[in-house]
Amino acid sequence: MILKTPYGDRELFSAFDSSVPIPRPSQWGGALSYAGKRVTLEETIGLPAFMRAIRLLCETSANMPLLLSKGLAPEKEVLLNAEQHDVLRQPNPDMTAFQVWSFTYASLLRGNALLWKVKVRGKVKALFPLIPDLVKIKRRDGELVYEIRSRAGGPVTRTVTRTDVIHIPGIVLNDPAIGVSLVTAFRHGIGTSLARQEFEGRFLANDGQPGVVLKHPDSPSESQRQELRASFEARHAGASSAGRPAMMWGGWSIDRIAVSLSDAEFIAAQRFSVQDVARMTGVPSGMLDEPPLKSVTTTPETENMRFLSYGLTPWQVRLGQGLALDEDLFPGPGWNVEHDHTELLKPDMKTRFEGHRLSRQGGWKTPNEIREAEGLAPIAGGDVLQETPVGGAPNPSEEAPANVPTA
């Protein structure tokens, strides 16, 4: 693939060509859980709560603008016109920024995010996300190297270093520089939920019952047993066949072990699975459509704050610090890459307008600052602070200049 740049055409690494096969979802991992289920991504995203949590983490973060600054408070300087903004807002010409950053966050959850750097005259002009399954991270002579393959399980086509890629590890447990997959780390809890889901499915596929016992006083032949079982399953298997009458003859009888839905506690088990996913990902269970306890009072604002503090922030800090650490993208120390949380933390309209009124009357916000916060155009004369706060000192006059005490 050829990247068009103002400095001429640049040939990109062939691993980004459309001919590269996308690895199967099952290649996220296949560790065996205590429940006997081999936990793979393909099955894990079949858990509605897990898929919902992953989307919330990845897509919410990808939708937040990235802000650049240098230094620390109170000397912190926000840089609105830094040239790196161009790369962060449009990482490459083939993908939207939302695609790049949502996939990057998904890669972080898988263990390691890797971005291929396209450099022109030593400056990073584009970033392409690498498929984690096509990159093997190793240590060689005390440094990390990255073995890249053009297809899963294929030969190594190129070995590169941090000069060519930005590597951002996710959860680090065994190695401080190499992350582990969320699916692998929580394979036992996920495996239990998958096994429970499979049991519920099979339960419903068998008429919502655990099965029946067909009895006979004698010893029927193998062919007779198989014929009767096949006939019975064909007529009574599946929820659509529930309630159909059964007819038995030749000495056969039916013995059924009844298990009700309340005995199986399917609903309680499903709620526990949602709560378990919330613990794994840091996403509040209320955002996974799990009703809160009656003793707990929550509001959208408190839920968003919890989501930001315990769900989004750890992953966003990983991404921001990982990008700022790259010397090709951010030469020199002191850079900060942060997310703008304004939209997530914005309260409801009534609360916002009440806050605007108090800030205007208190004399610390101008009308235009309030209008900017609401996405409105400035107005003439709207940059003047209210000099006399409501309930404060009298208005200044010519006889008594402002800020001069009177007798």
Describe this structure in words.
By secondary structure, the chain is an alpha+beta fold. It folds into two domains: 25-209 and 260-346, no CATH class; 351-393, no CATH class. Helix content is 36%, strand content 19%. Strands 6-5-17 form a three-stranded antiparallel beta sheet. It has a three-stranded antiparallel beta sheet with strand order 8-7-12. Helix 2 runs parallel beside helix 9. The longest helix is centred in the last third of the chain and has 25 residues, at 300-324. The chain is flat and about 100 Å long. The protein starts with a strand and ends in a 34-residue tail after the last helix. The relative contact order is 0.12. Residues 13-29 have low confidence and may be disordered.
